[in-house]
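Let's practice the habit of predicting before peeking. Look at the sequence and jot down your guess about where helices and strands might fall. Then scroll down.
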Amino acid sequence: MHCTTLGRWVAGTLLLLLMLVGSARAAAPVAPRVERPEGEYARWTLTLPGAMADKGRPSDVLLYVWTRGGAARQAMAVSPTDAFRDFRDADLSGLKEAGGRLTGAIRFAAHAQAVTDSNWPDVHWQIDLDVSAAGQAADGTFSGTCAVAAAPRDKEKPLADLLRQWADAQKSAAVAVRGRATGTRHSGDAYRRLEAVAGGPAWTRWLGSDGTMSGPSSGRDLLTDLRRARLVWRCEQALGPGKGQVTRYGDFGTWYRMPSYGGSSPVVSDGRLYLYYYVPSGDAYIKEEEQKRGPRGYFMRDMWLLGADDVVICLDAATGQTLWRTTYPAGGRTFLTGKSNLINSTVAVADGTVVAVGGLGRVYALDAATGEQRWQATLGPEHEAAVKELAAGQPAGGRAFGHAITIADGVAAVDDERGGLLGLDLKTGQRRWLVAKVLGRFVTPQVWTCGGKSHFVTLSDGVVRCIEAATGKEIWQIDRLGTRKWGDCTPYLQGDHLVVNLTPEDQAQKDGKTAIHQAGCFKLALQGATKVWDLPVAEYPYPVHPAGHGGFMRVDDRHIGFVLGKRPADDKRQPILVVVELATGRVIHTLMNDPPVVTWNAPTIHRADNLALAVRDNWHDQMDWYVFTVRGPRDIALATTGGTQRFPHQPTTSYEVPLVSPIVDGRIFVRGGEGIYCYDLRRP
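Done guessing? Here is the structure:
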């Protein structure tokens, strides 16, 4: 063959192969299914006097029921006297609405305050309702039983035997309850107007629209006692918990009798809430788990499925009703370990587009108003590897610490799951650029704007990089910064000031098992970053929590606070938070643990109006909150002396990269064990 002809043949063959490879990569798209539920959406709020019967001390139950088109969609019960919490396991199949009348049976359960194991509620209700609405007023009757009966916990017995014992105990403990049910019914546009949430780009990405975990001001003082926060809604769509089932755990493999739906956080924009989650699906599952758990009755097949549907949902932030739900059947996979459930595939919203990353490394861009797909892409090599693993029946292994999506200057920046940052055109999904090895294990890019351009600020292996969003060009870097044994955390950026860890892990002092680092600050400019201050580590030890952006909080435009590690003296009344002037590093205020009730582990600190709300431990299922009042940089105090507070729903967490709860217009939106919950924090 002539060399020219041979060359052409080789070139043509290579081109064909490249096209085939490209086709194979592009052949992965999954057709979306978009659903927009119809029918009138309504909320019934009913007081049931004396419906909680425990040891001769009856107390009221505040029952919420949400209906759509006559069908009961969700329910929630709250104790005004704090007699129970962690509402769960609602069975609404016997409840219906017709002609403004709510009738039928509802079953639900909850935990008395002393109970913490999510799988075994000890308060159980069976209630028959007959309530009618005239306008917005509701009135009627209720009757049924309330039983307080703790579950037997003999781990040697089969589950079926325990459940029979439990049912007998409930039957024996059942106390008849009955009375008048009164309250309200709100529906349609009037319901929406009553609970309206301010529009605008309120909390459009994981750490808030400006990356500081602070929401826009409501102009109101917020409640310091979370028990007084009014439940506005529980979302219409049922959801699974954030933390996942774990093969090495006993019983069901988790504290929830349902599979994980992944550890993503909600975001809020223009009066709508968006969330990515996955739903286990398909036929392939881990048969070893059936062999291990089946004989004692603890095997639930859905818990151990390998494949999953990717889902992006949009809710009305005022009512919690589903506006649209876009599902990609078999588009993803499950993550079967409590320390890795596609931990941080939190969506981002900009320019009318929602961007999400699914379990197999597909990237979805959807119209924020309708849920219709605008484009679909992939992460490249990691997507291909994940598809092959799933096809081979392999569970998602390792620790898949996905990183939240960030959008700036028309570019959606996503983690390529190999430590690189991939820039996709927001309008078309075409790849604009890829910068390798710039994201540490827990790092989501921050956005810095200067000179009319946006830049992504990343951190990996002690090096901060400033990357121009539109082009992927590296503008400058800061090297020889601190590192952390378990992986770098998202740096804290406020305005033009970047606060980071300065101490390499191998040089850090130890407080028991915890390494103590030094915090320092850089002033950013297009020409580079200039170090402006650091704090002495002996006085202000920084423990570098991976939660959020490392335990930092915005105090105001000129000041930040951050969590302190223990001092060597180990005094329980030690300092727990320091407030620093950003421009100078001058310490303005030190908050003491006095009384010594704060014992946080990897706290996540949210800021809004007069409050700082810190999740004590955003890793281990129980989402307990410390509430601080913030009246100024020198006036920060724990709101109550009793320690942590709780919302009444069943909680959940993710792990190491935490669930974040947007606070918008005085409302907080919290991902729980069975759904998303909205509470009004504004003082009446």
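How did you do? The CA atoms of residues 241 and 288 lie 23 Å apart.
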